[in-house]
Amino acid sequence: GWxxxxxxxxxxxxxxxxxxxxxxxTCNENEARLLREQHPGKRVVVQPxxxxxxxxxxxxxxxxxxxxxxxxxxxxxxxLGRIDSVKNQGWIIEQAPQIFEKFPRAMIVLAGACTDEAxxxxxxxxxxxxxxxxxxLLTGGLPPNDPRLIGLLQTADVLIxxxxxxxxxxxxxxxxATGTMVLSTRTSxxxxxxxxxxxxxxxxxxxxxxxxxxxxQALSKSAAAQRxxxxxxxxxxxxxxxxxxxxxxxxLYEELIEEKNAIRNSARRRHECADAR
Length: 277
What we know:
Distance between the termini: 63 Å
Strand content: 5-15%
Largest sheet: 6 strands, parallel
Strand order of the largest sheet: 5-4-3-6-7-8
Radius of gyration: 23 Å
Shape: elongated
């Protein structure tokens, strides 16, 4: 369809915003690098998304299991995001027979509203064709901070992010905040957060073995897997706490205001000197 973003950007002269801005804020280092190349000398600040950690502290697992009783006693492989070709849930479905053969108690949960009806319909047909309707749950849309959604994250054994593109990957932080393992494709956003084999795992869509091997490790609950999980939890608490991030943004605004005032004061003094002469 139409590239509406480019059309409205042209009408509104959105490129001028970057040229005129006192600072450009982006959510990952890859985007920051590109912006610095395009706008040398411009202040570019990386301000990642954060999560309100207090939301994830209360145990909501029972509320999720009451809403979705078929998950009781299962190993839950959760994919969280809108049902859309970019989110690429169909890739997980193609891996499902191999997953279920190796992990008989595994169940795939696709949580998110469908934003691409044709893709969603094809996904449902493929699930039926593979005969795995009883092993795949599509929850539909769940509002942010919904107790059922938080409970799903807390109950899941692993979060799988098979996206073709992610500029950040907020669900990675949500998984870490609830103590859930993360397996993600190598999108720019995920690569900013996940260090393979340290706080999660990264895999390649064209190499399914790079997915199945870490999945087995994640589900093993081994000491090594638990260390990886703890690192993710530590990072979300120290680096992505929304309260701390809000403080950083406030400090940036204060610094910019101070610089603006200094420039105005300097300009006023020059005018006063000129008038005195």
